[in-house]
Amino acid sequence: MKPLLMPVVAGLLLSCAAAVTGCDRKPSETPAQARSSVPAKTSVPAELRLGYFANLTHAQAVLGVASGDFQKAIGSAALKTKVFNAGPSLVEAMLAGELDLGYVGPGPAVAAFLASKGKAIRVISGAAANGVVIVARADAPIQKLEDLAGKKLATPQLANTQDIAARHYFKSVLKQDLRSIQPTPNAEQAMLMQRGDIDAAWVPEPWGARLILESKARMIAEEKDLWPGGEFATTIVVADAKFLVEHPDTVRAFIQVHRKWTKKLQDDAQAQLPELSAALYALTTKKLPEGVLPQAIARVKFTDDPLPASIHTMAQWAYELEFAKQKPNLDGMVDPAFAEGAAAGTSPAGVGGGK
């Protein structure tokens, strides 16, 4: 099986800034500040280039862009956005120097970190946990996960987070040939299911709920049921390491808005649905069927915690599936000044305000 990412040219990798270890920590610095790759203060960039998906599990990005909150927070920097179908294409854009921040699943983020030998990206926050479902075609003889053996299963993209989880399940639990897994863009799965070209799909929300309502598919499981504690990272926020070093104040301002939307979604996710529905329609030009978002959002847990243990598990799966060439070492992938504060519910270093 080919590696997840095409070889990255040496010049690109050399241009990525390595993390500062903080061995010479000043007395006034906190441990998180000292270990972070982020200096105290830097200039405002001309622009901030953000990548994300038109998915419910990327709700903070969708809402932060649509509301104008991100643009207001970053001041004179121009917010440039690009919407992707799945993670591998997003991290390839980041490795190519085309993105500064991105919302992405752990699988592709790990691949980018390893492909750049730990130099290219940093995890700065969580965004969503869970919110991934396995649905079966109405007339397919599939009632439970074990029935997927020998069936044609769609995932959003080769080596994206759902694809890795599905392949791990097929290989380790079902002992099945992986050729029956068919990476297919989310928007095309309903048509293939209706034609009988796929039997099931392993997808993030709202695509799962959409297949249930539009194609009369039935949900046979939520992926969270396969994880210890019933929780795993679905979406994390990553930053280009060089951009993070050069423009930490801009990233801090961005993350403050991200956390504001996380809090709103945690407090009352249903109340955000009118704005979220309008924003998703603007991105896709397709109106979701009545009932999709209320059903789907109930299966998503919005969180600023990147849930690093699940990222490490996903990295191990990618290695076992030969998407990664060597045993993963993720030291330095999670930036402590941002992500540890996210897990604790506090502001990034240098930003006031608390929870």
3D architecture notes:
- This protein is an alpha/beta fold and 355 residues long.
- The chain has two domains: 26-130 and 232-344, Periplasmic binding protein-like II (D-Maltodextrin-Binding Protein, domain 2, 3-Layer(aba) Sandwich); 132-230, 3-Layer(aba) Sandwich (D-Maltodextrin-Binding Protein, domain 2), CATH 3.40.190.
- Helices cover 40% and strands 17% of the residues.
- The chain has helices spanning 10-15, 31-35, 59-66, 69-73, 87-95, 106-115, 161-174, 186-195, 207-214, 241-246, 248-268, 273-284, 292-297, 308-320, 336-344; strands at 47-53, 78-84, 101-104, 121-130, 132-136, 153-155, 181-183, 200-204, 218-222, 233-240, 300-302.
- A six-stranded mixed sheet has the order 2-1-3-10-4-11, with helices on both faces. A five-stranded mixed sheet has the order 7-6-8-5-9, sandwiched between helices.
- 52% of the residues are buried.
- Residues 1-35 and 349-355 have low confidence and may be disordered.
Quick structural gist:
This protein is 40% helix and 17% strand.
Strand-helix topology:
Elements: H1 10-15, H2 31-35, E1 47-53, H3 59-66, H4 69-73, E2 78-84, H5 87-95, E3 101-104, H6 106-115, E4 121-130, E5 132-136, E6 153-155, H7 161-174, E7 181-183, H8 186-195, E8 200-204, H9 207-214, E9 218-222, E10 233-240, H10 241-246, H11 248-268, H12 273-284, H13 292-297, E11 300-302, H14 308-320, H15 336-344
Parallel strand pairs: 1-2, 1-3, 6-7, 6-8
Antiparallel strand pairs: 3-10, 4-10, 4-11, 5-8, 5-9
Helix pairs in contact: 3-11, 3-12, 5-6, 6-14, 7-14, 8-9
